[in-house]
User: Fold Class F sortase from Streptomyces flavalbus.
Amino acid sequence: MTVCGLTAVATGRLLAGAPPTAPQDVGDVPAGVSRAAADRAATTSPPVLVRGPRGLHAPVVPVASRPDGSLDLPRDARTAGWWPLGAGTGAAHGTLLIAGHVDTRQDGLGPFAALHGLPMGSRIAVTGADGTVRAYRVAARRTYRQERLPRDLFASDGTHRLALVTCAAPYDRTEGRYLRNLVLYATPAGAPAP
Assistant:
């Protein structure tokens, strides 16, 4: 599975200019697999909104994968996609994976461009369809080649965490796509972010 078109399958719509170079990897990535899927909480809800500092504010819709394994993200850079085969909001286990375009030709920079500048410890709020707001704190940042995203990003089991994913430089003008993904890992933080 790849993300950010997520082999940047929004390639025809990406801006010619890339966002700032992806920041350095920092923090300890929260474990993604440690418990059986059968232990998951039954009271989960689909995420409908993600927000945080520096302009991160996007509605969230469920997305599926394309035949090539990439996520079929919404065309609008202002809307993020949720991988429903992972965790939902309120889940006790699994990765709540939300991905968005860093930019598109039509919309310019999207809210997920903010991921490139979020410092460790930033608070992220995810609102579920049931109206419950869950807070997370950014614990780690990693960049991966798109074809080498960790499989546990797509897990419905393991320790609960949030993974926010977008495209990262370099941008291949010949192929019309970004070559890397930026992933921010966040852990539950208690009270909702402001």
Observations:
- The chain has one domain: 11-190.
- The chain has a mean pLDDT of 84.
- Residues 82 and 98 are 5 Å apart (CA to CA).
- The radius of gyration is 15 Å.
